[in-house]
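Limitations

Structures in this collection are predictions, not experimental determinations, and the ligand pose is part of the prediction. Treat each record accordingly. The example that follows, with pyridoxal-5'-phosphate as the small molecule, is included so readers can see exactly what is and is not provided: the inputs are given verbatim, and the output is the predicted complex.
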Amino acid sequence: MTREPIDLRSDTVTRPDAEMRRAMAEAEVGDDVFGEDPTVVRLEEEAAAAMGTEAALFVASGVMGNQVALHLHGRPGCEVICDTASHVMNYEMGAMAVVSGLLPRALPAPGGLLDPAAVEAAVAPEISYRARTRILVLENTHNLAGGTVCERARTDALLAVARRHGLRAHLDGARIFNAATALGTTPAALAAGFDSVMFTLSKGLGAPVGSLVCGTRDFAYEARRVRKMLGGGMRQVGVLAAAGLVALRKGPANIPEDHANAALLARGLAELPGIDLDLATVQTNIVIFRVTPAFFGATSGEDFPDGTAAAFLVRLRERGVWAVAVGRDLVRFVTHRDVSRRQVETALEQVRKVASTPSAAA
Ligand SMILES: *Cc1c(COP(=O)(O)O)cnc(C)c1O
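Predicted complex:
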């Protein structure tokens, strides 16, 4: 029996649906570098409305959105407070240093949550021989912490620290619609008070390409210049924005199902011997868990030179289920609109089969 692989590597793997493809084919377009693409203009207006900001700018990717914002908020030699497991620190190729000369001041954030007192303590005092701290970056939902959400009360406490010390605050809200769904609120409510917010269309919302970086009208004007500098000035890009509009309007309705599927997956995994999974971290569409040697019936890690996560993933892939490692013994599953509840159940069955199959050393 062969079946379609069940792809739980990321919510970025979704393919544009028929409605998106139709919208792309029929999109009204113009040269967006001249500001003349009506579909992009509409997407930017609707994105700004969703985030509660004056304006928004369509960018090629989430990384580009984050980096445009950081570039505008800081100056070379300044420090950026973020957390050690943040996307800007781990998955953006050191761009804040390369593109903007910024220095990350990374703090641990258990559960993806920075501690306001720790942030306050990390702000450099105003002394002639200290680099200035200029930016605070928060991530909601937090990817590497397992898709955890940051509640408004903590955000307020962190923003108060930022204000007290004159820091600009940027929200990496790649999955802000997931956060809003889990917290029963709106993206605008979670984005309020930040100087800028980035969110992606190409993750849980299901678009093939694109992110938005949102803020004041002045911010968006300056962001357009930085985007161009980075090579992100696109022309008849309404063909992409058209899919993005469908994603923005229709995508959020699908997110509760993705969260229910992640919860189902997590409960099934947590029951298996040799898997360590803290169910409290499963709040949205990401499930991160530790695979111990015991999962394979082994007593020590010595049998797994490439790590237990790699051994787990190879066996699972043979059974048609794809996921990624986020550490030597950490595996990440992400649910999205292209995996059904039935497929999640199948994925769980396959994990159970891997667990019950006696294995030779990896
Ligand atoms: C995916 C992601 C990004 C970057 O998005 P790309 O479109 O892949 O560049 C930024 N921040 C977080 C938290 C993400 O999960």
